[in-house]
Structure formats: structure tokens, C-alpha cells
Write a structure and sequence with these properties.
Length: 188
């Protein structure tokens, strides 16, 4: 059935969602560059929430759209800002739209050829993620970074390619500011 939800554009909260995911530092060990820094934090007894996803998940079939809000906490692992795992869509011809709601961040995009793009996201900014581009979002600010997304419900998420190869670029803090640098561990 058709339905409506409210998206609070100040608090970035949805009045309704049917799937909530909480992703903690321990879930992201393979994705951050500085694994020793991850381990130090975990051994110190801390396992912070890095991001949460509030999803309106539809049947996983062609024609449907999933939409929701992702909230990334502020923080860093070593010098690398808190971020999402990032993924290619399993159905590579599917695309996505992001809309910035709160805070400051960037979206890192990458093709399998190694071509990369990096676009800032802030309140009101709409990003188009074309087919075949992997995407990861990164919180470069001091507060929460939240955005709305919508994508084909049957797209699927290929996290394994990113787990194995990483992104060609890292977004790190240098001298108090975000900087996009080459990832020495990237496997082309
Ligand atoms: C988003 C992402 C969400 C979390 O809904 O799934 O921001 O990021 P990861 O899936 O990379 O952990 C999206 O791009 N869906 O396709
Ligand atoms: Zn996606």
C-alpha cells in the first residue's frame, strides 16, 4: 500500500522505519586503515557506535525503492574519520540519491576501474550516485552527520569487494582539517 512518513529536517529522524541497523567499531575493523588503532580502542573496553541506519525496507524486488536515514557519529580511528563500510550495489546498474540533512561530511565514490570522486555533503545538498560507482560516506565534522537516501530495493550490497580492496582514497584529519589522501593499502 502507498504510505507516508515524516522526515524531521532538523533532527534527521523518521517517524517510521521497519529496519534499524547499529554498526559499531568492532564491525568495521576490516574497513578502517589503522587496524591497530581499532584494536587499541576495543581492548580498552570501548566499542562506540559508528553509525546507525533507519530504513524503510521494501520487498527486495525490481521496481521497489528502499529509503531511510543514516546517522554517522563524530569520531576518528587514528586520523581517519568515522565512516560507513561502503559498497558497490550487487546489481551494478542500480543508482542512488543522497540528501544531506545535518552536519558535514563527504561521499567518496569509486568505479572498479579505480576512478574516484569525492563530493562534500551538507544540509540540502543532493548527490546522485550513478550505476557502477561504489559509495562510502564520511563524517568530517564535530557533530552527527545525517543524510537521507533512496535506492532500488533489489540493488543488493557488495561489501566484500571493499573489505578486500578498500577505497583508493582515505579521508583523514590533517592539521585539524579533512584531507583526501591515497590509500597505501588499496588493491586495484
Ligand atoms: C545506504 C547505506 C548506508 C550504510 O543506505 O547502506 O548509508 O552504509 P553501508 O551500507 O555502506 O554500511 C546505501 O548506500 N544503500 O544502498
Ligand atoms: Zn548504496
Amino acid at each position: 500500500m502507498p504510505y507516508a512518513v515524516l522526515l524531521d529536517l532538523v533532527t534527521a529522524s523518521l517517524s517510521y522505519f521497519n529496519k534499524k541497523s547499529i554498526v559499531r567499531l568492532s564491525d568495521l575493523r576490516d574497513f578502517f586503515f589503522d587496524k591497530a588503532a581499532v584494536d587499541r580502542t576495543l581492548l580498552g573496553g570501548q566499542n562506540p557506535i559508528v553509525y546507525e541506519v533507519y530504513d524503510n525496507s521494501q520487498p527486495q524486488s525490481e521496481g521497489h525503492l528502499n529509503f531511510g536515514v543514516t546517522v554517522i557519529s563524530p569520531g576518528k580511528v587514528g586520523s581517519e574519520y568515522f565512516m560507513t563500510r561502503g559498497h558497490y550495489h550487487t546489481k551494478e546498474h542500480t543508482s542512488e540519491v543522497y540528501l544531506g540533512i545535518e552536519g558535514e561530511g563527504v561521499i567518496l565514490l569509486q568505479r572498479r576501474s579505480g576512478k574516484v570522486a569525492c563530493l562534500p555533503i551538507m544540509k540540502g545538498r543532493v548527490i546522485y550516485v550513478p550505476p557502477s560507482w561504489a559509495h562510502r560516506t564520511i563524517n568530517t565534522g564535530d557533530g552527527k552527520f545525517s543524510f537521507f537516501y533512496v535506492y532500488s530495493a533489489d540493488a543488493g550490497h557488495d561489501y566484500e569487494s571493499i573489505r578486500k580492496s578498500g577505497f583508493a582514497k582515505l579521508v583523514v584529519e590533517k592539521g585539524g582539517k579533512p584531507e583526501v589522501v591515497d590509500n597505501p593499502n588499496f588493491i586495484a
